[in-house]
Amino acid sequence: MNPDELQRLLLGVVRDVVGDRGAIDDGDVTIERPRSREHGDWASSFALQLGKRLGMVPRELASQVAGLLLEQEGIAAADVAGPGFVNIRLDAAAAGALARRIVEEGGLFGRGTLYDGVTIDVEIFDLIFSKS
Question: Residue 82: left (phi > 0), alpha (psi -120 to 50), or beta?
């Protein structure tokens, strides 16, 4: 399971839990790598951002979502931390499937046409460090 697939899965589960309490946009549910690997493979703070807007206690929203995530293929663990963070650990098969895809696609992995025809200006700055 790649990050985009996980994010779409999480978004779908959040929408299922929220129901008709309010609209959830794609950007409302994001994932990121936790600072410490012991917290899992991925983390999300969606409940902290959406709780008040939806009239839900963030930790309860996170708990409901984490419970449903555990039922999904590829998810080994989903834990709630603090006031409403969700830490997610993928099972080995999900990680293996991504590795297999990378090997199969070789140099084509990660390529796409999203930015075809778009000019991108890349600037490189040299930083000079001096010893004091």
Answer: left
Using one digit for the tens of pLDDT, what is the confidence trace for 105-117? 888 887 888 888 8
Q: Residue ranges per domain, the chain?
A: 1-132
* Class of CATH domain 1-132: alpha beta
Indicate the DSSP class of residue 32.
Answer: B
How far, in Å, CA of 88 to CA of 10, rounded?
10
| 87 contacts: CB under 8 Å, gap ≥ 6 | 34, 39, 40, 42, 43, 77, 78, 79, 80, 81
* Beta-carbon-side half-sphere exposure of residue 35 (alpha carbons within 13 Å): 1
Measure the CA–CA gap between 103 and 110, rounded to whole angstroms: 12
pLDDT digits (tens, 9 = 90+) for 21-60: 888 999 999 999 998 888 889 999 999 999 989 999 999 9
